[in-house]
Amino acid sequence: MHEVEVSGFVQATPTEVERALSPARIVEYEGSFQVEDVTETGSGWLVTVSGGGLEFTVRFEPREDGYHYDQEGGPLETMETTLTYEPEDEGTRVRLRSRVSMGSPPAAITDRFAGWKRRGELRRALSNLAADVE
User: Prior bond to 14 cis, omega within 30?
Assistant: First the structure.
């Protein structure tokens, strides 16, 4: 298992950040997959995504300060992410923290590679969010 985190300041209020975020929009901000379908459940949303010859589901649960989401049946053995935001100075601090595992040996190498790719997706998500709200 490899953990990665990306944090950044966004020149927008927490309310503006909250309005810009939705499960589908988060997937779009990350930029690796396209949203095919969004189904609301009693505890959150199931987002069907596709790309690169793959199709799988990402389960999103709302939190008071953001979202927690993980893949179901996707390319990785484990991929779970927490996105949080909180007021800071005249804007908002946004954090994306993810745990990933490819589930194939040697884990020290494959999980590090998965983490490297995931960090790029999280950076892209933060950059795209900032571009939308600033």
Answer: no
Sheet of strand 91-101: strand arrangement? 2-10, 91-101, 78-88, 66-72, 54-63, 45-51, 34-40
pLDDT of residue 39: 98
d(CA 122, CA 116): 10
Residues across the chain: 134
Question: Is this model's pTM higher than 0.85 or not?
Answer: yes
Neighbours of 50 (CB within 10 A): 13
Residue 68 Ramachandran class (φ > 0 left, ψ -120 to 50 alpha, else beta):
beta
